[in-house]
Amino acid sequence: MIFLNTIKKRRIKKKILQEVQKSSAEQSTLSKNKINSILVFTDKKTPNNFLKTIEKSLNIKKEKVTILEYLDVVPKENTSEDYLSQQDFSILGNVKRPYIKNLITSKFDLLINLTKENLFLDAFASK
Fold it and tell me: Which H or E element spans position 105?
């Protein structure tokens, strides 16, 4: 199992690098008046007041903010889809869950990562 996790992490890192290289030519600067949608990565260590801080500092309504929380363990009673976990990735580093695949294809003007180093969120962000 440890061997498979090592392979999985290597494949995800490779995919991140490929996606970052592919999209580096598309980088552009944003101004506050052009921000219409934001994706925010959070985890259990993210402060509770982060959404109010984003709203106030960027002068944007919370309806334009999508939050994706990283969970180490997904509770069985969880009914929300706004999370990402290790189980959402195949052994080859591909995303398995349709909700996450849909988020990957969605366009966001701004991506904010409020987590510590997280390989799985990095993989998602590189898409």
Answer: helix 98-105
